[in-house]
User: Fold this.
Amino acid sequence: MKRVNLFLVSMVMAVTLSFCFSSCGGGSREKLSQALAKYDKYESFSEGLAAVVKNGKYGYINKSGKEAVPCVYTGGSSFSEGLAAVVKDGKYGYINKSGKELIPCVYTGAGNFSNGFAEVKHGEKIGIIDRKGKEICPGYDKVYLLERLYYTTSLDGNIAVIDEQGKIIPLNGYNYIKKIKNTNDLILVGVEQSQDEVLWGFMDMATKKEIIPCIYEIPDHFISDYYCFVSEGLIFSVGKNSKYGLIDKTGKQLTPFKYRYIGDLSEERALVWTETGAGYIDKTGREIIPCMYEDASPFSEGLACVQKHDKKCGFIDKNGETVIPFIYNVADDKTDEMRTETCFKNGLAVLSINDRKASIYDRDYDSAYGDYMIKGPYGVIDKTGKIIIPFIYRNIRLQGNNLNNLFVCYDSNNKKYGILDRTGKEIVPFDCYSDIEQTADNYIVTLNEKKGLLDSTGKKIIPCEFENIYSSDFSDGLMRCTRNGMEGYIDMEGYFIGKGTVEKIEKN
Assistant:
């Protein structure tokens, strides 16, 4: 097993900001545009203030363009929980929104506050402070955030837990610690066996005593985030010699260690692989559907997509009965393996019915929106197998949050994108846009290499006149963008606000 890298502390060495702004009237737009003209650089607003740069010095302005904090710092971050990290004489500290230095600039690095705490750096040592500047724990080689009240630090190669009062509880003999996402009762503790191997056990959070010894491997797909297989009864997926099985909270073995993979429970079924193929177990570890398939997906909306050895795919119910016949192709172009993401969303699935091995899931996964990027002549079916969108499109994006149940499709005949609804009706025609990208609430569209915006129903709200749109969504009324080489902001009423410029962008 490869060595596990736990959470790394991200220090604020550069400004990284999210934008927040209120929709404003004409007077406020003019004041803001005049203020922007005074500065060499300006960043996005956060908690009502934006960092600005003048002659290499950072300060902050409010939404009316008034300078709330003078430009006297050599660096500055966004505001978070009422405080912003700033740099003075090469050292980091924190100011409030009036510019008062509440935490002196004595650190060599500083992070944003979250839940009342922030990581700071003293030389190469890292510690934790609260919003009053009190050091909750002194500097250590490494500090990892475990949860709201617990932090871990390296002490001579071992692990310790530190509560918010600063009390250090050594966990001698362990090298790693990991939160279990769906329970607060236990944590994972690990012992390094070699440079490439860590064995894990379980510790009771209340007593800080080990209840299951460090003799197990963790499945590779749990390296970043570990979950109980069943949280109610505390059943865990663990491994020995690269084969995995289930144990309970006492360490009792519930299944043989025979699986190459055990997936998460989805609708009372978990996808598993053995040397013979893919199948499904229930939450007790009982094998419900034999491991006889070439590949398979988790269950979703009562159905799972499974692939036979002839590469044809269909859908089965939770008892293994065929519901939709094996006539589809969902194998990966490069690996011949079917992707394991859920197929049906809101009663619809995107599939290919051609003869070549094409992939429903041949795309980069966007964790924020779960965007399915599907390539090939594809269409959409419902859970009865009825064709909703004909199998004629080279590319279909079924968004993870399925914004208004709309599908972004690519027509290879005219090489344009359009949008169809869940009945197959054309919402945005295939005669205009070379790209359509869904955000959480809107669509960013591209026409002649310029970007614009559609609302969630496909209605145009900002014409394609921008070289770039930096923020994917309106945040409290404003979106950051670039127009004719000038950085600025577009508000919900269609006004562009730049350096000394306010212009109404007319819809064409």
